[in-house]
Amino acid sequence: MIDISKLTIVSAREALKKGEFTSRELTQACIDAIKSKDGEIHAFLEVFSNALAQADEADKQIKNGVDLPLLGIPVALKDNILVKGEKASAGSKILENFIAPYDSTATQKLQQAGAVIVGRTNCDEFAMGSSTENSAYGPTKNPLDTSRVPGGSSGGSAAAVAAGFVIAALGSDTGGSIRQPAAFCGIVGMKPTYGRVSRNGLIAMASSLDQIGPFTKTAEDAEIIYNVIKGQDRMDSTTLDGKTFPAHGHEGNSREKSSHLTIGVPRSFFESSLDKAVLENFNQAVKKFESLGYKTKDIELPTLKYSLAVYYILMPAEVSSNLARFDGVKYGLHVDGVNSIDDYFKTRGEGFGPETRRRVILGTYVLSSGYYDAYYGTAVNMKAAITKELREAFKDVDLILTPTTPTPAWKFGEKSDPLSMYLADIFTVPANISGCPSMSLPSGEVDGLPLGALLTADLGNETALFEAGKSFQG
Amino acid sequence: MNKEEVLKLAKLARVGIGEDEADKLSHEFDAILKYVGEIKGAQMTNDQIPNSKPDLRNIMREDSNPHEAGIYTEAILSQAPQREGNFLKVKKIL
Predict the structure, then answer these.
(1) What does the pLDDT look like over A60-93, one tens digit per residue?
(2) Does A36 participate in catalysis according to the annotation?
(3) Taking CB atoms and an 8 Å cutoff, what residues of chain A touch B10?
(4) What residues contact A68, with CB distance under 8 A and at least 6 apart?
(5) Contacts with A387 (C-beta within 8 Å, 6 or more apart), sequence order
(6) Which residue ranges form the domains of chain A, and what is each CATH number?
(7) Residues B43-84: pLDDT tens digits?
(8) A44-47 and A188-191 beta bridge pairing
(9) Residues of A (343-382) whose Cβ lies below 8 Å from B
(10) Predicted-complex ipTM score
């Protein structure tokens, strides 16, 4: 019996190569684990019927001596990443029966690297939420404590990896939707630099912030997936070529060794919002980096505190525009009204859940004439100011370290007013606002619940994240 | 914000909502707008205000090499809630 919860991409690839088990056996072990435990956790919305056939194909290649980074490795995809011929609902009733007519670029890259795509995982509707409680298909539970949320919006992907249903998964991160659930489930979650991974075939939430990234047990595995899915794509004009951001200091001769990396700690940004136990956990992470030879220094980032406010203006504005495409005409749900415009009201009123309706209407407000300059215009300027402040800081330090979240996973129903839920993203949002790459690492537990340490690097400097992540995890 | 304003916004956004939801949203929006409104008071110094040329700009590709006409038609139209032949079917507009 293969225990998926003990396997990493690295160890599973090794075992597949040595013939200790086949990809079919490995994939079957995933399916068995899902069958026996996912009734309670609800990480998956669907296990794809061709999962074992994909595994057989991988086994053939392994037998023929083919070596690919993910050959035979079972992975799961968040329900907003398209796989041709499979349903993709983005956790929404409005796309309940939508069949993806094409593969996302990330899907294609996973397939080319030999991955077995086991199924699609639950998420907050259109990736809007921090707990998966906004999924139209019911919440996912945290595998470490089923009375608590797994985080969100990519909660299903995080739970699937943490519960040992798959070895790795993809999610999408618009304001923290990979890193926050990774922290709540005790695993690694990483958001690449904006533009590093193609958004082609990712159901859009806020296009200037959305980015696909991996959930894994280790930073080493996250790097493997990142290297598979990254790259410029003619189907997404915001993707970057390899030269957009010049090589970083530590990649040059002078600062080659990770023990010379410097970590900045913006204490005044987060300290007042933490309780003692969470702060103590964070201080332990700082000490661990210091014991590994990293230099740490306190830094001031006075503009960072506006990140969440900027986010809750820009994001709903983009949501209201992006979700205008759901009209009951082209695809998805159609609810009949008395006339053509009533079709829109009924389809969108019934097809969108409460949080989606809230954000679409809020976005309409901040973009409406009379309020546009005060909200959207100011937020765009502030976004640039935050980015500038962070990039200035990265002239002095290689990485910035904060907690991933102000608290560990909360109980279902605990955050009933929207603003208190939004505040859960306070530490993860700056990386989306600035476009910087960012990764949450498991940093131990408080009262039996996992917490994360969040590393953020300069635009294009994923290398520093992986280097520090790997040494932190030993 | 009051209930009537929320209903007007919902109408602009083409989202059908009831009076109760509009009332609830009006209170939630007050709290959210109070929070995000913080940035209106933030003082930005001149060097923080972005210059007009953004670092990242859209990259356009040549509008050339079209795919063969019609090869995606069925895949796309098969998703339409209502169709007639190769057309999307809607209620009369005018």
Answers:
(1) 999 999 999 999 999 999 999 999 999 999 999 9
(2) no
(3) 357, 361
(4) A61, A112, A113, A114
(5) A433, A434, A435
(6) 4-229 (3.90.1300.10)
(7) 776 666 666 566 666 677 788 989 999 998 999 999 999 999
(8) unpaired
(9) 343-346, 348-350, 352, 354, 357-358, 360-365, 368, 374-375, 378-379, 381-382
(10) 0.92
